[in-house]
Design a protein that fits this description.
This protein has 373 residues and is an alpha+beta fold. The chain has nine helices and 21 strands. It has two domains: 247 residues, TIM Barrel, CATH 3.20.20.140; 90 residues, Sandwich (Immunoglobulin-like), CATH 2.60.40. The chain binds zinc ion (2 copies). The site of one zinc ion has 4 residues, from loops. One zinc ion (ZN) binds next to loops.
């Protein structure tokens, strides 16, 4: 009985401790949240996921449950076509099975399951994901280029996986080979992972811009999302935000081919300027200018309705009363700025550089905030 009392006390302590901890992390919960942008829905997608049908550790249904917990809109299960380490236990003659199992399990949810595979080759071309495919088995061919051709014949969106992977690229510098250049020239390769699992590649971002490739970020999860990305400590899985006209497979595909994406990785947003800036400004709700007493000190509240903490470097004419030029607009929080405008203004604008957003290698975008009384 005494032991029971001690156990209960310990349990209560654990719960209290956990709750206290979460207030430091993402206390707003596990579901990933970003608002829509003008003209488009912001869909949260993970296009690179493994199961026991290649070298992953879980059954496809677990992937669906994880995605639902993360509040995702779409996933693609992309098991290695050519690499089958569990083959003795799971012979896997039909490479469409992981997709079919996930698809039927997700039937009564509004999570979209997109058919996909990972074409798994030595470098070049290395690994590539083909998503929106018709039949995985037909992509399992001897010649690497023919695999890309078959995926494209099926209407697939194809992106280069982890071009910075040190097993295939010793220096970790994503670099196009002649084969990649030819695949791009022939419109057989459409996107590139700038983010894969636990890595971010400045060089891949530059390649995306120079070659008009889509910017993709994925979890490439093999084990459990919870463990790999430290969700209990406020981490999140890397995903691609897709700006789609509606939440359908066709619409996601259209958006990918049009290149409307931003990657979300370790509290950082990575994408082309034209997609990144509208996303960040859509996350922020700007309050009205209020002057304090009879002073010339303006107060403006900024509410951040997204999962991203925005680290701001202010490059405006005015200084702040309560902070330096660098401060953070915390996720799902309201920050009050005290701005020394020197005279009372009915309206003014401020320019902020967002340091944890990346629009090219080492280049961070600027946003303009309009403030009004
Ligand atoms: Zn791979
Ligand atoms: Zn993979």
């Amino acid at each position: 009985m005494k032991n029971l009392a001690v156990s209960i006390l310990f349990l209560v302590f654990c719960i209290a401790f956990t709750q206290a901890q979460t207030t430091h992390g993402h206390s707003f919960g596990r579901k990933i949240e970003f608002p829509n942008v003008p003209g488009y829905q912001t869909l949260k997608c993970d296009f690179h996921i493994h199961t026991v049908f290649s070298d992953g550790a879980v059954w496809p249904t677990i992937r669906v449950e994880e995605a639902l917990k993360d509040g995702l809109d779409a996933i693609a299960i992309t098991d290695h076509l050519e690499y089958q380490p569990h083959q003795q236990d799971i012979p896997h003659p039909d490479r469409n099975r992981a997709y079919e199992i996930a698809k039927s399990f997700a039937e009564n949810n509004d999570l979209l399951i997109i058919p996909g595979v990972e074409i798994t080759r030595d470098m070049p071309p290395g690994h590539a994901n083909a998503i929106f495919i018709q039949d995985a088995n037909k992509i399992l061919v001897d010649d690497a280029r023919m695999a890309f051709e078959e995926a494209n014949r099926q209407g697939a969106y194809v992106f280069w996986n982890h071009p910075n992977w040190i097993s295939q690229r010793k220096d970790g510098i994503a670099t196009l080979t002649d084969m990649h250049k030819q695949l791009i020239a022939d419109s057989l390769l459409h996107g590139i992972e700038v983010v894969n699992e636990l890595t971010f590649s400045d060089e891949a971002m530059r390649l995306a811009l120079e070659n008009n490739l889509g910017v993709i970020g994925t979890s490439d999860i093999h084990g459990l999302v919870d463990w790999q990305f430290d969700l209990a400590e406020g981490g999140h899985r890397p995903i691609t935000l897709v700006f789609a006209k509606e939440k359908t497979e066709a619409s996601i595909k259209e958006a990918l081919f049009a290149g409307r994406t931003v990657a979300w990785y370790k509290d950082m947003l990575i994408g082309k300027e034209e997609h990144l800036v509208p996303l960040i400004t859509s996350c922020l709700e700007i309050g009205k200018i209020k002057y304090v007493g009879d002073s010339n000190l303006a107060e403006v509240e900024i509410k951040n309705n997204s999962d991203a903490d925005f680290i701001i470097n202010s490059v405006s004419a005015y200084n702040f009363h309560g902070s330096s030029d660098v401060f953070t607009l915390e996720a799902h929080s309201t920050t009050k700025l005290e701005i020394k405008t020197m005279v009372r203004l009915k309206e003014f604008s401020m320019n902020f550089q967002v340091l944890n957003a990346v629009m090219n290698a080492r280049i961070h975008p600027y946003i303009k905030i309009e403030m009004r009384q």
